[in-house]
């Protein structure tokens, strides 16, 4: 078993990098705070006897040698970046859980056949550089390195620039790294495990998710002199579209989800009727075919709404991550590992995207979920218990050891 | 009569300061572009023999001496700042019209008893420093100089700082400047004169206007894992509030107006349900008592909407400019001047706020409107004809001469 106290101490230590007043974390990818936690990760792993390398997307690989170093490594990991107002477990738990596994093996003086690696995937959240899972996406062949490097934050700074500034560009071409299996430990970020009082989620796959940018064009006009019937108010039209985006999810309840996270209106003056509104749309469903129906429903509703409100609408798809089904053998390793400890468990489909989504395209992959308080995530109030995160790391340890013997 | 060609040439010349690709103007108060047009104004007036002074709010006064300089001056003017995507007539016409009057008197070698002044009021639009009519508001006693100076733009830069940087702080305390009358020429910014094919609007007053900031607080949550019924989506609630704000105007049609010009959502990440949305509300009505009813209706609807959507709402009043009735004698001077030329005309209540609103609290005031294309303003497509702007300046000239004889 892993040492739960050390693991918890690591969670506390790393929470200082970008820690917020409200007890959350603001550690956007490749910012000063992210560089701090990356340095901590590198030093901590080196102190455990690992070698640390980078690939060309700045993904960090901390490697503990095996007895047969010709075998491709078994990887564990997740990400160290967070949302703007993120929590203390999302992502980092999968990395620190990997470190806890290495420590446990070290303490018990156990050698594995395969080398073991703990990986920190760059820019998982997509909060600074959209879309999410960008560097693991390059690793899995979903994005080209050129596309990923060209992604810019709201100030126009590119991911490529920040990788170079930070000295994070390694020799190895991203995606050329061999691996025999990948296990990612993560908080559920949803309410299911907590509600059913189960400790471990055996993640069988990840739902499909699609992103769009909606651009509504009306006509700017003076707030004090333009009669209501003469307006082409892009914001009023957008408000009605937001209602319709919500209706798309409700029409496919309970699985269907829709979210609008970002909205801007121009020219952004109190006494000017907005001429242009832009907002993001995030649609999700575990079923790829229902997600397709949701998309068509969404597009139709936006068109209808634009016509009814005498505005123009353009809809640009910005991300499409199809539903994923993880590797049966890896899933089984997770399941039997949870059984080893007698943990309560259930199979579960992830609502959130994870680096495992793209890694699974090229490496046999599974995930382990542990509960989080009230299912709250992407929120500074995100919380999980020491017992649950330790249990998850124990399952990670055994799953890795089982994979080592396959 | 004024020289319409010179006037039009001045409109063309000044349109270069902040001119946009789409033929509009972006000349926010006290920016580089505004400093340019202020310098042009000063030089042009000095070339006409005026002395130019500033008061403590950076208001510019260009003075042509009268035969009895003990009399308080008759003022003409408006503002040189614009909206972010503003037009080529809003504001500047009232200043250039004043210059056209001085030129006409010069050319005809006419002296007035009263000194005449052309005034450029600082930051009328409120697009950079809210609320609008800030410096004329200090002049009229509506705002303290401290309040006005402390207003900051979206980068946190204050009006006071920009006045000092530009060297626009004059010796004279704002509001201490004596005046015997004030006439402001402006485009209507609405559709009435054009629709009725009238050249001159005799502006009898300005409708009441009230601004608010609405802050909606929900709970941030993960877009992929949070079931729709468990969300407290601040943006969905705000969208429903926007619909209700629109309904407030419709309930008081056709005079009642409501506008939402600015909206922001936090934490502004595509895969996070927004926890906080802020938007501005602008309510207007020519009747102060109906405007009061609109306000109560608005507040009630926001509360109902917040309750129905399980979010919190706070509403902060940010500006209140009561309905204004101009000086009967000044109105009459405008009317008889329009009659002098045989222009078609009508009385009209201004839908937009103007510097005249606050100046009228301390100086007998009236305004002159001319038509603008399709009533479009606060828009780069804003347009007016050379004939109409010349006609308006002719009325301004005669109104000033009549006031001089009172
Ligand atoms: N785990 C996680 O929050 N990833 C972000 C990608 C998503 O939006 O699901
Ligand atoms: N004239 C003008 O556009 N002034 C701005 C103040 C208002 O919102 O009415």
From TrEMBL, chains A, B:
The protein's required cofactors: Zn(2+)
Binding site for Zn(2+) 2: 90, 125, 378
Entry keywords, A to Z: Hydrolase, Metal-binding, Zinc
Keyword Zinc part of the UniProt annotation: yes
An example Gene Ontology molecular-function term: hydrolase activity, acting on carbon-nitrogen (but not peptide) bonds, in linear amidines
Cofactor comment: Binds 2 Zn(2+) ions per subunit.
Official protein name in the record: Allantoate amidohydrolase
Species in which this protein is naturally found: Acetobacter okinawensis
């Amino acid at each position: 078993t892993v040492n739960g106290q050390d693991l918890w101490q690591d969670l506390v230590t790393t929470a200082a990098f970008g820690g917020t007043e409200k007890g959350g974390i603001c550690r956007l990818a490749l910012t000063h705070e992210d560089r701090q936690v990356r340095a901590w990760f590198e030093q901590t792993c080196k102190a455990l006897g690992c070698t640390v390398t980078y690939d060309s997307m700045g993904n960090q690989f901390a490697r503990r040698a095996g007895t047969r170093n010709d075998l491709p490594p078994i990887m564990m990991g997740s990400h160290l970046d967070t949302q703007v107002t993120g929590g203390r477990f999302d992502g980092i738990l999968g990395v620190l859980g990997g470190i806890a596994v290495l420590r446990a093996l070290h303490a018990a003086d156990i050698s594995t056949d395969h080398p073991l690696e703990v990986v920190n995937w760059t820019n998982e959240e997509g909060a600074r550089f959209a879309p999410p899972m960008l560097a693991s996406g390059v690793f899995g062949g979903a994005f080209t390195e050129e596309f990923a490097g060209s992604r810019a934050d709201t100030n126009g700074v590119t991911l490529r620039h920040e990788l170079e500034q930070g000295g994070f560009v390694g020799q190895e071409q991203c995606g050329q790294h061999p691996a025999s299996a990948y296990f990612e430990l993560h908080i559920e970020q949803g309410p299911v495990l907590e509600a059913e009082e189960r400790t471990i989620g055996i993640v069988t796959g990840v739902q499909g998710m699609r992103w769009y940018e909606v651009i509504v064009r009306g006509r700017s006009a003076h707030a004090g002199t333009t009669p209501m019937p003469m307006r082409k108010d892009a914001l009023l039209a957008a408000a009605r579209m937001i209602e319709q985006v919500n209706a798309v999810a409700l029409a496919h309840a309970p699985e269907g989800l829709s979210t609008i996270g970002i909205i801007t209106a121009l020219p952004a003056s109190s006494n000017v009727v907005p001429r242009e509104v832009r907002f993001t749309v995030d649609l999700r469903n575990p079923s790829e075919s229902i997600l397709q129906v949701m998309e068509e429903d969404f597009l139709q509703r936006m068109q209808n709404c634009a016509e009814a409100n005498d505005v123009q609408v353009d809809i640009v798809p910005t991300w499409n991550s199809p539903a994923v089904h993880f590797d049966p053998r890896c899933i089984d390793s997770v399941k039997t590992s949870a059984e080893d400890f007698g943990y309560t468990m259930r199979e579960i489909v992830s609502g959130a995207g994870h680096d495992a989504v793209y890694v699974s395209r090229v490496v046999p992959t599974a995930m382990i979920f542990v509960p989080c308080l009230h299912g709250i995530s992407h929120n500074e109030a995100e919380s999980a218990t020491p017992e649950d995160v330790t249990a998850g790391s124990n399952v990670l340890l055994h799953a890795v050891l089982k994979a080592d013997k396959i």
